[in-house]
Design brief:
Blueprint lengths: L1 E4 L2 E3 L15 E13 L2 E4 L9 H13 L9 E10 L5 E3 L2 E4 L15 E3 H10 L4 E2 L3 E3 L5 E4 L5 E12 L2 E9 L14
Parallel strand pairs: 7-8
Antiparallel strand pairs: 1-2, 3-4, 3-5, 6-7, 8-13, 9-10, 10-12, 11-12, 12-13
């Protein structure tokens, strides 16, 4: 890193700066990114993220493949360099991994039934007032999409979590307000 003028720094070899929490060790290791090929170029699928664990990248790729604008591309995972903090091990609940804040890379990296710690739910609530907040159900305050209900009405759906145990919440997908079961039909986008 080199001081160029007036307190501004330029990174060596085009590297990005990585901010870490005090007391957490930074690591450089193999990482995984979700990409696709287009006209001779390799492009990131959605956000350009190098994930520290392959299972996070696989989950992200599954969600990107469902998006209508990505369906025409063949997504794949390529290895890269992960430069960030070393991940704290996750605990388990009923032999299932419970993601902690180190492992949580956003809702786009979760599959139905994935478990997260309550601290993640608290962060979500702090970011945006929830659409629904009960002791057994929390929904993000901004609609994630829309679905057609059993009456043929198009309604907003919200990313939803339900409490299954102390400090353990299950991701339920995008549900109608006040519900914690994903249902309805996705509208056809033309």
């Amino acid at each position: 890193m080199e001081l160029i003028h007036h307190g501004y720094y330029e990174a060596d070899k085009g590297k990005h700066f990585v901010l870490t929490e005090k007391g957490k060790a930074e690591c450089v290791t193999e990482g995984y990114e979700v990409v696709y090929d287009y006209n001779g170029y390799t492009l990131s699928a959605g956000n350009h993220i190098v994930f520290p664990k392959r299972q996070i990248a696989e989950s992200y790729m599954k969600n990107q493949e469902k998006k209508s604008w990505m369906k025409k591309h063949k997504l794949y995972i390529r290895t890269g360099i992960y430069e960030g903090v070393a991940l704290k091990e996750c605990r388990t609940h009923d032999n299932k991994q419970v993601y902690n804040t180190d492992w949580f890379y956003g809702i786009d990296c979760l599959q139905l039934g994935d478990l997260v710690e309550e601290e993640i739910i608290d962060d979500i609530i702090d970011a945006l007032p929830p659409a629904c907040m009960r002791t057994d159900c929390t929904q993000l305050g901004e609609p994630a999409d829309h679905r057609i209900d059993e009456n043929g009405k198009t309604r907003a759906v919200f990313a939803t979590f339900k409490r299954i145990a102390e400090n353990t919440w299950e991701y339920c997908g995008n549900c109608f307000r006040g519900e914690n079961i994903q249902r309805g039909i996705e509208p056809a986008y033309v």
